[in-house]
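Quick illustration for those who missed Monday's session on complexes.
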Amino acid sequence: MTPADVRSLFPILAERAYLFSGGIAPASSPMLTAIEHHLAALTHNTGDLYVDFMDEPRALRERFAALLGADEDEIVINDSTSAGSSLAVSLVEPTPGGNVVFDGFPYPSSVYPWMFPPRDILERRFVQPRDGLIHVEDMARAIDDNTVAVSVSHVTPAQGFRHDIGALADMAHAHGAALLVDGAQSAGALNIDLHASGVDFFATTAMKWLLGAAGLGFLYVAKRHLDRQPPTAGWVSTSQTDMERLRLQSSAERFQLGMPNLMGVAASLPGIDILLETGMDVVETHVLDLTGYCIEGLRERGIAVRTPSDPAKRGGVIAAELPEAGELQAFLTARGVDTYNAGELFRVDPHIFNNRADIDRLLAGIDAFRSGAKK
Ligand SMILES: Cc1ncc(COP(=O)(O)O)c(C=O)c1O
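Prediction with pyridoxal-5'-phosphate bound:
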């Protein structure tokens, strides 16, 4: 599928320039069809749906794994990135005297789980940016033999900065530490090979760049960690009903408790299929072309873009600082251009279904806003 083919699958684009995939993806027509099929099955073949309840989740795990260079048995289906990050933290031993290394752009769900006993004994170290960038050598200086984990967002949501997760994994492993990655802003936008990268744990959500549903998330647990003890267990975690002994699944299913969100699973399969059929190399090239084009247009207008120009240091998120971000975002929404703001943060997140005309429409909207046409 070409980017133009993908574009034709998203009804919203007939009217709007949707540029907020880092928040939530719009529905594709295959997603709507899948939801209709699920509802029909739930209405008319309810018993079969229950008997076959593991089929679609297994297919989703397989395709997610294929998209990201992993194996099906390394994938846990849960409800969100935050749930995955939290589960990953619970799989790391809190060694007394140990520390965890973060960057200066952390996401709350990567940090808060470390504040609960018994992991609150670990020192929390934050590596601050220089010139708007997190430097690999600064991360290296913060990691030592007492580091138990390094935890970052692959692409940071308020800066659009991309880490080199392969380099971080090597650094962490050289000191016996694990690398935990929040991939909410990278999975589905960038061409990722989890096995090649050496990442230990990678959490993400279906609802953003993976073009799926909210309430459906994934955690990748590298095979070498599949013997870890889950913090808790449910009926999916074990393959037996012996109440005297707990025998956990050997796959990542040991980290799953009960019935997954079947509606969310059904709604999330088509998005991953679209990305697989397009090819993540094509998706990444397209996303980086659009972000580069947009950054240029914003900079030409004197807007303070936080996101690096270097394509190796960014993904699909463009973050800028703008005192009038809220007003501008509302103005653009009224003109059919969807962006995001939080305080002075202004965000534009183009995906595979966007094109340069969407970016031109955004830039024309910014020009109209600035020329005083504030309605
Ligand atoms: C880096 C990052 N992590 C996590 C989240 C939240 O994801 P979830 O709601 O799936 O926990 C976001 C949402 O914007 C994000 O940008």
